[in-house]
Amino acid sequence: MSAADLVPGRVVPYRYLWARERRVGLVEGRKLRPCVVLFADEETAPGSRIVGVLAVTHSPPDPEHPSGAIELPATVKARLGLDDAPSWIIVSEFNRFTWPESGYDLETLPDGRGSHGAISPGAFATVKAAVRELRRRRRFVGIDRDG
Predict the structure, then answer these.
(1) Can you tell me the distance from the alpha carbon of 92 to that of 131, in angstroms, rounded to the nearest whole number?
(2) What structural domains does the chain harbor?
(3) Cβ neighbours, 10 Å, residue 142
(4) Once rounded to an integer, what is the mean pLDDT over residues 121-136?
(5) Are 134 and 91 in contact (CB under 8 A)?
(6) Is 112 left (phi over 0), alpha (psi -120 to 50) or beta?
(7) How far apart are CA 126 and CA 53, in angstroms?
(8) C-alpha span between 105 and 19 (Å, rounded)
(9) What would the pLDDT profile of 63-107 be if each residue is shown by its tens digit?
(10) In b/e form, how buried is each residue of 105-121, taking b as 16+ CB within 10 angstroms?
(11) pLDDT at residue 44 tops 80
């Protein structure tokens, strides 16, 4: 995985750890899944980045909190090489880690690429707006994977 794969809007294969899994004591993500890079900030150490990713899942959003997910259009999924089942970007929680030091849950795709590609700038703007609103309402949870 290169730093070029870790830019906002890119979709990377990552072993995402859900907040509910962390609450029961798990420290590793159970499943490799596509995740959207929310941010990749330069850190003080050269070549190091603080990265935040949002999970993509086939599970529909909680009907009581539908604003916590954004459906990925089928055309976007096809362009990224993902399956054709409905999927959502979960915008109510994220995983945060330092790359490359703690980026061991990032993997490459079977063809050796580090990412599926990127969602469109418009779709990413929608994701960022949803995250901002959930942060404002204190309904946005970060899971620190460095510890």
Answers:
(1) 7
(2) 3-144 (2.30.30.110)
(3) 12
(4) 95
(5) yes
(6) left
(7) 15
(8) 16
(9) 877 789 999 999 999 999 999 999 999 999 999 999 887 778 999
(10) bbeeeeeeebbbebbee
(11) no
